[in-house]
Amino acid sequence: MTPATVENEDAQINDGSSSSYSSSRVSGNDNDDVEQSSNGETSTSVPTTHHTNEITRNETRNVSRLRHVVILMLIAKAVVVCWIVYAVQKSRESAEFANQYEAATSKIIESYEGIVHKMGAIGGLGVQLTSQSVEEGTPFPFVSLPHFHLRAQNAKDLSGALAVTINPVVHAHQFQKWDEFVNDPHNNAWIKEISDYQDALGINQFGDDTYDQQRRIVSNRTVDVMRYFNASSMPVPEDGLSESYYLPQWQGSPLAHNGNRVNVNSLRQPQLRDASFWILQHKTAFVGSFLVGKPGTISNPHPVTSLLAFLMSAKQMKEVSYEGDPLSPVHFPIFDSFQMSSRRVVAMMSVYIHWASYLQNILPSISNCSLYVVLENSCQGPASPRQFTYIVQGEETHVVGIGDHHESQFESHKRVGYFGSEVVKDGTLHGVFLNNSLCDHQIRVYPTQEFYNDLITSGPLNFTLAIAVLYIVVIFMFLFYDFLVEKRQRIVLDKATKSTAIVSSLFPKKVRDQLMEAENTSKDQHLGLGIKNRLTNILKRDATHDLNTSKDSHDEPIAELFPECTVFFADIVGFTAWSSAREPCQVFVLLQALYQAFDEIARRRRVFKVETIGDSYVAVTGLPEPQKYHAIVMIRFAMECLEQMHSVTQNLECSLGPGTSKLTMRMGAHSGPVTAGVIKAERARFQLFGDTVNTASRMESTGCPGRMQVSEATATLLRAAGKEGWLERRPELVYAKGKGQIQTYFVATTPQGSSCSSDCSKLHCPQTTLGSENVRLINWISELLVANIQRMVHHRRKCGIKDDPHGDFIYQLPSGRNCMDEVLEAIEMPTFKHCAVGRECATEAAHVEMTAEHKELVKALAAEIASLYEATNSFHNFEVKKEGTLKCTLVGSLAELTRMLSIASVNSRAQPLQHACHVTMSVVKLLNRVNAPDISPDKVKDQADLALQLHDYTHGIYSDPLTHFAMAWSSLIHDVNHRGVSNGQMAIEEPAMAGRYNHKSIAEQNSLDLAWQVLMQIRFRGLRRYMFGTESELLRFRQLVVNVVLATDIFDRELNDLRQARWKKAFPSSVEDIVVDLPEGRRAVSSIMMGSIRTSDVRATIVLEHIIQASDVAHTMQHWHVYQKWNRKLLVEMHAAYKAGRMERDPLSFWYEGELGFFDNYIIPLAKKLKECGVFGVSGDEYYNYAVENRDEWSLRGKEIVAGFKKQLMEQDQAAAATKGGGGTGDDEESTSKTYFA
Question: Spans of biased composition, class Low complexity (predicted)?
């Protein structure tokens, strides 16, 4: 046999996309009807490609070598260039860092080492004191330097010192004379002079002498007696006998505390005592250890802190705080003469320097240089710190703290400065010797990380990386270009070498030869390009030439006659009506599942699929290659498709809803010659033409659901093949357009030998009982409820809402109240939460673990609700089964489900009453349309923003899974225990019930109470806890269900007026409509009164009520066949009520006019509201359009249909009376409620 492998390559070449349908590879046969190759597939003749492959390998090898060389050169060049760029840039940065660091360090060390030179001014002050003694001939210690305040201030300014103090050496025998000397007004006049001088400068305002006033010994003296302070800081007078000499503080600047510390014996201070010993013994100056106090101000109670703050304030002429950084004393000896060999030390002058002041104003203010400066001394002393750290940044110096705090990674950058020379030049010939051996001082300078980062940046690396990336991009562009070129060559070669096989399997030989006809150059023949180029030109001719005017011989039509073929048409019965009740995605789920299954069968049975149009499937056997037993192959294919149709619809019913499993196919076939060819249009494809195709289409359109109808020509071929047993002659002749009355046949037997009845009302498939169909309905509702519960649980977990493990989760109405009392004008919807939004959350919700026990409880709950429906009602009921118990293999609560359905079905008619399921499907559809409005993608930032817009757009419905569950539950229970009569009739028949409900919405409140009692049963407590998590959610669920279910009472005038008022308030058409009076006691919902949030709540409430109202009558806003089905069910129910004396008038007498009024006064206004509120997207238009179309159709055909209803009902009543009289059982409801179509 010739190949049967077909891939619609023509459409791919034409527009670059996949074709609208795909043909299939056929392998395998039935018995000996068709020959096949030994490996189970038909052979395919493909032109040899050995020579082409050899040429390709040689060329590829050379190109590959050159490619590798180019890539290696590019990589090598990139590495070298990047290394050079990085080295140069890094070297520049390092040099810049070194230069700036060296310059800044040099300035700091220079300033530090220059301190000793500045000390010469202090030394000069000591020389002046010696000169004063020598000139006046006054021996020490009885010497006072005149104009001391000016001399001291000048010395401080030149040296940068904070304070200077002269401490003369007073021997014990001079003690009394010293006391007289200090109290002589001539000698202590300097105190007033310096005090007046400090007043003029504003320095005295920084002092506070209260502390020292309280510690004076003799208060009426200008200078107190020589004294010292004990451990309690109390003054103790010196007696002049305890020491061999004394060291009182005499002249000093600045003068702290108005001179109250003058004449205090410094010898009692350990540091000054040691300093005096050193100076008296060695006659040299030296720098003392660090003096550090606690940070603070002048008012600090700590005396050291207060004194240091005063000294710094006096220096800067403004009050400043002491920051805790070190000062150091510099002690100078004062001699009695200038003779080096004979001079004696007669006094000690102490100068206090602030180290930080010598580090300021060194670097430029605009400098970004910041350095660590570590002060260090070798002084001995338990309380004196050895190291202190500053950060010098520009002109400022910042205190870091005691110790060495420089960053260890910069240890190698250390620069060291030492404290000056060995001689302080004081203006004398020899100066004053500075001894560093006692307490050596130095500084160490390091860069900071900030300074390093400012100069040593990632710039060289970034620049290098940029160049590297550029090279990488170039390399990858080269590789990508090479890849594209190679891919193009490979695709061209592969496509070209396969063109012969494609054309051979797609077209007959003569058509194939015409497509192949082309002049190929030797190169094209070597590479196999001629076939592909020719096929491409043929299939794309429409895009480049005008077919009507072209003179090219290649544009001649390509067609062929296939004399022996069987053409097959199939159509899904009831598909249009079924699809009108479902979402578009559900429709395509069904079609995709079916057609994929059919394509697989076609592949196995070597049937050529022509195309699919909507729900129609077209196939043919006998081409592209002839098949001897084409009719048998087609019949086997059709029967297997029919069985697959049943299997697929059964499996999809739980996801696509009730009624899916009842879909079947109507099929037809005819055998004869077929003209097939290539239509060279925008998308070239292979098509069939001829009378055989038309007749096959008539076989399908005049056939019966679930049956395969064939023509006489096909039947003749089957008889000739010995398959006469498959045929069943159709009793009546069939009228075919253009053919007149013709005889047709049903396929009565499958190739496997099972029977197929000629009754057009039954399917050719394993028949299922109504009981199993009921179980599928329960399963569908259970799956729907489970999915909603999973979303609720996932939402709580995602948003961190903790479940209450101890709540009873029971709610019962208070005594004396009914459901109507719970109705609110607006149900408060939850605020938007970002925690559970987005597609990933929807996917995660489907994977929430739910125990088998909870799922079984959901099924039991759905089953018990189903058992509450009145099975004798034709419209308001649930599906049940008449005979005995339902035959199912169930366990656990499913077995209980079966038992309840069986009990509920006793003495009932077997009518598939699916109103609750139909309403539920409509509710789900509308809710999903609420979730998917038309939002422009360019107005959405991200997934969270989209969720927020959907939340606002849907007034909070989108983001609340509890609302979705409440709507599904409400649609399931809204007609529980409905009696098939109006509320007025129920008030007559059930006066106690009517009184309990105050004659308001009796049926609806009764349904609510019964369903709520079921839900509140003890056995469902665990399920309630799992569903709701918290009792507040249970109460909100209750409120939603109450409002929604009671909204189905559309005949209560007061409720309708209230709804109209709310509609105007929520969706005002004018400003006047906003203000509407509401009944007293109801929650006000005006947007003016409540604001946007409350208005959103009332709109959400209205939308939910309109969803249930529209779904309750959804059949009127769906396909005409759906409308007629439920229209008849309602009529049967009301006619039964009339016959039972429960209705005053026969509905047949007003049914036509009543339906028109119902459309005009309720259905179309309701549909218009769905459209106008803008929440339901295109579904609002869909419902409105169907409502208008059904109304128009009813106005034209309604009278005729009602007449048919009346005739059928009269015949059924007569038959029922006769059967009752004969003692038999009545006809089942399936036959009595069969839909009548005019």
Answer: 17-27
* Cβ pair 654, 780 in contact under 8 A: yes
In Å, the largest CA–CA distance within the chain is 165
Q: What's the CA gap between 132 and 347, in Å, rounded?
A: 13
> Which stretches of 146-233 are assigned E, i.e. beta strand?
163-168, 170-171, 227-229
CA distance 402 to 400: 7
What pairs with residue 246 in β-bridges?
A: 170
Residues 304-358 pLDDT 10s: 888 888 888 888 888 888 888 899 899 999 998 888 888 899 999 999 999 988 8
Question: How do residues 674-697 score in pLDDT, each as one tens digit?
Answer: 988 777 666 667 788 888 999 999
Pairing of β 664-679 and β 708-710:
parallel
Q: Tell me phi and psi for residue 1057, to 5 degrees.
A: -65, -40
Asked whether 208 and 261 are in contact (CB, 8 A), the reply is no
**Beta bridge partners of residue 322, listed in sequence order:** 296
Residue 194: how many CA atoms within 13 Å on its side-chain side? 25
Q: Which residues pair with 803 in a beta bridge?
A: none
Q: In this structure, which amino acid lies at residue 1099?
A: R
Q: Is 741 helix (H, G, I), strand (E, B) or coil?
A: strand
Which candidate, 442, 452, 459, places its Cα nearest to that of 409?
A: 452
What is the rounded distance in angstroms from the CA atom of residue 506 to the CA atom of residue 120? Answer: 113
Nearest to 441 by CA among 530, 361, 378: 378
Sequence letter at residue 842? A
Tokens of 970: 């409400």
Residue type, 539: L
Nearest CA to 398 among 442, 441, 450, 439?
Answer: 450
Q: Please, what is the end-to-end C-alpha distance for the chain in angstroms?
A: 51
Lookup result for tokens 């002079």: 193
How many residues can be counted in the chain? Answer: 1238
pLDDT in tens, 546-587: 334 444 445 566 778 888 999 999 999 888 888 877 888 888
Two tokens at 921? Answer: 């499907």
Q: Residue 23 in contact with residue 8, Cβ under 8 Å?
A: yes
